Amino acid sequence: MNETKKKPLKNRRGLLALVIGLVLIAALILLFLGLRASRWAARGKNLELLTLVNAEHPAPDDRQQEYELMDEGWMLDVRCAGELQLLLDDCRRAGFSPEIREALVTRALQSERFEARRSELLAEGLSEEAADAEAAKTVQRPGYSEHELGLAVDLIDPALPDGEQGASAMQAWLAENAWRRGFILRYPEGKREATGADYVPWHYRYVGQEAAQQIWELGLTLDEYIDLFYPEQTD
Ligand SMILES: [Zn+2]
């Protein structure tokens, strides 16, 4: 009697163990796939914030952007407007008085600025070709300004003229701390070869906290960082 009772019980236990095992395996597979999917989603999101704009890479025409109007009256991509506000608060708490001089500049406005400069130079007697080249030295060509992304901002110490911004304590504080809020100094000193631009002490670019920290810690420019970690961006 005992023997016949025990056998089905043992079988049932075996079956139960098998079912539990299968459920566990299925759960692990789902977890793995879920993690992978979220990693890829995060990577896609990061890539958007890492959009490279330089002399070889114009700003894409088809970007879907959502803007936020900041208290200061400037427009920025919604993903960085709040972070900039926090950075400005941090900077004020450190005893400085940062001011925004430029944030989002639409392609249309950039075109207007470029054309205005070109017209000035034409009026001064330069040829079409020379005026075009000369204008590009001081005004970025439409499509080649990072400000078109809504992810770049110019921060200045209003007490100082442009020529002294680089030596200001406020700019030094920003260069040291901006990464904490996801911003990087886009055109650092002595990096012309990588960025294609001379040192600009006030131009900050939002790339997200993780990338900003890596760029800061590794001492890279955005151009170098993308070359190293996201080469598919520039293919
Ligand atoms: Zn700028």
Task: Compile the SSE list and pairings.
Blueprint: H1 2-49, E1 67-69, E2 75-77, H2 78-93, E3 99-102, H3 107-123, H4 128-138, E4 152-156, H5 162-165, H6 169-177, E5 183-187, H7 192-195, E6 200-206, H8 209-218, H9 222-229
Antiparallel strand pairs: 1-2, 3-4, 4-6, 5-6
Helix pairs in contact: 3-4
In a few lines, what is going on in this structure?
The protein is of the alpha+beta class and 235 residues long.
What does this structure look like?
- The protein has 9 helices and 6 strands, in the order αββαβααβααβαβαα.
- With 235 residues, it is an alpha+beta fold.
- It has 2 domains: 146 residues, Muramoyl-pentapeptide Carboxypeptidase, domain 2; 39 residues.
- The longest helix has 48 residues.
- Zinc ion binds next to strand 4.
Low-confidence segments, ≥5 residues, pLDDT <50? none
Q: How large a portion of the residues is in β-strands, by DSSP E? A: 5-15%
Oligomer: single chain
Q: List the helices and strands in order.
A: HEEHEHHEHHEHEHH
Main β sheet profile: 4 strands, antiparallel
Intertermini distance? 76 Å
Structural class from helices and strands? alpha+beta
Count structural domains: 2
Reported CATH architecture of the largest domain: 2-Layer Sandwich
Number of helices: 9
Query: Percent of residues in helical segments?
Result: 40-55%
Assign an overall shape. Answer: elongated
Q: Could you give the order of strands across the largest sheet?
A: 3-4-6-5
The overall pLDDT, averaged over residues, is 90
What features would you highlight for this structure?
235 residues, alpha+beta, four-stranded antiparallel β-sheet, two-stranded antiparallel ribbon, 9 helices, binds zinc ion
